[in-house]
Design goal:
By secondary structure, the protein is mainly alpha-helical. It is elongated and about 85 Å long. Helix content is 58%, strand content 3%. It folds into two domains: 75 residues, no CATH class; 53 residues, no CATH class.
Length: 137
């Protein structure tokens, strides 16, 4: 997925979120003026209280703004690693988009927000440092 497709996808998500919030607001006002529970559920009729509906609508708009802002922040922070990565079978370097071969750690750090720390697994510790192996039983 290229950058423009990712941008389009994030815009679509925000659009659908906003449409869902707008639908809830429409339902609030329809309920206020049509008194839906009394028509469909046989509930007692209630008088129109437009101030309550206005307050509920404003609260939903504020919630919508917060959710859309958080969604935008999330999409801005996300970086994708996807597709096939050409990797050397011997040294494990990855060929970048310009054809240069980079160490695996460097490539992943450049393409995402991942950071690496280094350690040593028990098998390598036994092979490389048998006298200092803390994993030895």
């Amino acid at each position: 997925m290229n950058a423009s497709a990712k941008y389009l996808f994030s815009r679509q998500v925000v659009y659908y979120e906003s449409a869902a919030f707008a639908f809830v607001i429409v339902l609030i006002w329809l309920d206020e003026f049509l008194d839906i529970p009394s028509h469909f559920l046989g509930a007692e009729q209630t008088p129109v209280n437009w101030r309550e509906s206005l307050f509920e609508s404003l609260m939903i708009v504020l919630l919508c703004l917060v959710v859309v802002k958080l969604t935008n922040n999330l999409f801005q922070r996300m970086k994708y690693l996807e597709g096939l990565l050409p990797i050397c079978a011997s040294c494990r370097r990855i060929r970048g988009e310009q054809g240069d071969w980079q160490p695996l750690e460097f490539y992943i750090q450049e393409q995402s927000d991942a950071e690496f720390t280094h350690g040593i697994c028990p098998e390598c510790a036994e092979k490389l440092y048998p006298e200092y192996n803390p994993y030895k039983k």
